[in-house]
């Protein structure tokens, strides 16, 4: 009986390890990631230069005092991108999907919200959804509902991209499901590229970043 029980546990562990998810962040450093944009900011309190991005308590943290992206250094086509985040009150961040390398010298053309998509992340739990609120495809498509929790609570967002279909769930609730090929403004957006997280304003922390490729 004990042998059968152990075998069952091993099979379950094997299935879990082989479920297709790629753990993107090791909780220790930025292995596998690239900082696109500024790497430091000047702390007004002591006039010292400090890292814009850091790993603290097993999480990715950005001070928000600079505009740029932390990009996973591998391109994906069809996938599910899972991120958990929390932010201070009034913070502004986002997720880039199917994007390119951000070049500060060509900021507009290379940022996700123009080149491909930024999934907006804001401390705006009380707002009605529009093309600029949390889980919008920023400036292009509004979510159908507001499902994010107010700062500083943790939120979970999953972005599924499969062909021209983009589906977003926030805290387990579907808030966007769109076929970009049916919308003239975005029908030519790329169907593959990088994923990233954004630093924009105020502190944001990220954890449990993972991605699953869809066959």
Annotation keywords:
215 residues, 15 strands, 3 helices, disordered N terminus, Jelly Rolls, 40% strand, five-stranded antiparallel beta sheet, 11% helix, mainly beta, eight-stranded antiparallel beta sheet
Question: In a nutshell, what does this entry contain?
Answer:
With 215 residues, the chain is mainly β.
Query: Would you state the CATH class?
Result: Mainly Beta
CATH structural fold name: Jelly Rolls
Query: What Rg, in angstroms, do the CA atoms define?
Result: 18 Å
- Share of residues in helices: 10-25%
What's the average pLDDT?
A: 92
Determine the number of helices (DSSP H or I, runs of at least 4 residues): 3
Structural class by secondary-structure content:
mainly beta
Identify low-pLDDT runs.
Answer: 1-17
Folded structure, characterized:
- The chain has 215 residues and is mostly beta strands.
- The protein has a single domain (21-213), classed as Jelly Rolls (Sandwich).
- Helix content is 11%, strand content 40%.
- The chain has helices at residues 2-17, 107-110, 112-115, and strands at residues 21-23, 33-36, 40-42, 49-51, 53-56, 59-62, 68-72, 79-87, 92-99, 117-122, 155-162, 165-170, 173-179, 194-199, 204-213.
- Strands 1, 5, 6, 8, 11, 12, 13 and 15 form an 8-stranded antiparallel sheet that branches. A 5-stranded antiparallel sheet has the order 2-7-14-9-10. It has a two-stranded antiparallel ribbon with strand order 3-4.
- A hairpin with a 2-residue loop joins strand 5 and strand 6.
- It is globular, with a radius of gyration of 18 Å.
């Amino acid at each position: 009986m004990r042998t059968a029980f152990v075998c069952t546990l091993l099979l379950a562990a094997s299935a879990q390890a082989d479920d297709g998810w790629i753990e993107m962040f090791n909780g220790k450093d930025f292995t596998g990631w690239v900082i696109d944009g500024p790497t430091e900011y000047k702390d007004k309190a002591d006039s010292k230069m400090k890292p814009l991005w850091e790993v603290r308590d097993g999480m990715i943290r950005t001070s928000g005092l600079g505009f740029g992206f932390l990009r996973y250094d591998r391109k994906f086509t069809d996938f599910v991108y899972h991120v958990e985040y929390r932010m201070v009150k009034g913070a502004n961040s986002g997720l880039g999907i199917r994007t390119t390398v951000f070049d500060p010298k060509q900021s507009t053309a290379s940022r996700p919200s123009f080149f491909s998509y930024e999934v907006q992340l804001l401390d705006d739990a009380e707002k009605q959804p529009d093309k600029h609120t949390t889980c919008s495809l920023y400036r292009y498509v509004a979510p159908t509902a507001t499902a994010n929790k107010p700062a500083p609570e943790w939120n979970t967002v999953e972005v599924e991209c499969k062909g021209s279909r983009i589906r977003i769930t926030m805290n387990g609730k579907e808030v966007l499901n769109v076929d970009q090929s049916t919308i003239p403004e975005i029908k030519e957006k790329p169907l593959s590229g990088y994923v990233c997280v954004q630093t924009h304003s105020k502190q944001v922390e990220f954890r449990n970043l993972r991605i699953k490729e869809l066959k």
